[in-house]
Amino acid sequence: MHRKDLFARFASAAARRAGQPAAFGIACLIILAWGLTGPVFHFSDTWQLVINTSTTIVTFLMVFLIQNTQNRDSEAMHLKLDELIRANREAHNALLDLEELTEQDLDRVRESYARLARQARERLRGGGKDEGIVEVEL
Fold it and tell me: What is the total count of domains within the chain?
């Protein structure tokens, strides 16, 4: 098994478990236990350092796990949308990989769709219909 696959499986499982109510409950219990031990340790700098260091480490690691999971989810969503575009005869195949375009190209496509929406609303106001295949400017 590849390291990438192993990490992906680990990241998915960790993100799923971290998002469960039980994980939130455990985190609350840890903070409660830390707070209750404050008087025992006289609210010392070391006592504060323990929670600060622990939460920083957990947050730091969770950022990478969640980002990995989000990246894969986003990629899967793009592929599913690409398949829907590809499978629909009336859809524009030129839109299949929009996420790869530059900001300027995306702005042009967005403006093209905004113009189509304005035209469709005008037709509706004039008693027309909102339908038809229109070429999109890329």
Answer: 2
